[in-house]
Amino acid sequence: MSNFEIVFTDKEQAELKSYEDVPLPDHHVRGSTLTSLISIGTETAVFKGDLKNIKYPLHPGYASVFEVEECGTEVSGIKPGDRLFSMGPHRSTQQLNARATLPIPQGMSAETAVIARLMGVTMTTLMTTAARPGEQVVVCGAGPVGYLAAHMFRISGYEVMVVEPDASRRQKLAATGLFPTYEAMPLNDPEISGKVALVIDCSGHEQAVLDGCNVVRMRGEVVLVACPWRRLSDIYAHEILFAVFNRILLLRSGWEFEIPLYNQEYLANIALTEIVEDPHSRYNNSRFDIFSGFATALKWLEQGRVPLEGVLRTLTPENPNELYHAIMQREFEETLLVLDWTKV
After folding, report:
1. Which of 68, 61, 66, 67 is nearest to 43 (CA)?
2. What are the residues facing 261 on neighbouring strands?
3. pLDDT at 274
4. What was the pLDDT predicted at 51?
5. Quick check: 344 pLDDT over 60?
6. What pLDDT is stored for residue 229 in this prediction?
7. Are 150 and 173 within 8 A, CB to CB?
8. Contact present, 35 and 110 (Cβ < 8 Å)
């Protein structure tokens, strides 16, 4: 059976190309892809060539669910037939170190499970913020990452509100009955302005960042999750700097990989010579890690705490060039786009 993967061959050009699987290392697992997740913002930017110094060909995608067919000789706890979540790309098979996978809950669809990857984008902010449950949080932008962030912070006990200029996206959030939504930042609302503990910018727009800096309380946080792919306003840096200085706020990156992929505890019985030779790979003693965040996301999805009706659409990968042009033109109302590889 032939294997296929999506490849960006040039600017605004995508093809479905064949490939051969490589030999399976001892600690790896391999199997057929059930679903993969499109990261609309990142993949559209790459497809359009918005990134500086971009070089083609590129292999997009960073989330998949697959069914195990082969296990390396050193793999334990995983067997053929298991369905696993991973950060694999858009291709018809996945081959990864077994450690870089998670079992998906029994009975959960592959289309639902793969959403855990996008939840992980703001899970890092949830793990590292100084804001505490019960405090006000504003999410700017109700695209795929912002929509999920709003639900994650609500689940965690925060008072969440969402700012989104797009009326259809506001309606999808309002339909859940869980969030107050605003077309623009409520800077003149005395119940909000100056009382917000955390602003999470998932829009990448300078105005949203400036408004966030002006709505937070003294010593509040504004976290930049979305990539500012291009300039969208004539705002001067001084306006943001003035707000940061006078409100004594923390303006920081929302980079999801600020925390390690895995927690590695200190092992007292490691030989001193091993620590000296490789002092960084042995342990990190991190309280949080990426894969524990994915596990939490899968649990919340299993419990049905993140409503996906009306925001998730399943597509097929046979015509990727047509698909990515449609995404670029915003032809899909849904913001969570999943590829079904079972019929390729």
Report:
1. 61
2. none
3. 52
4. 77
5. yes
6. 87
7. yes
8. yes
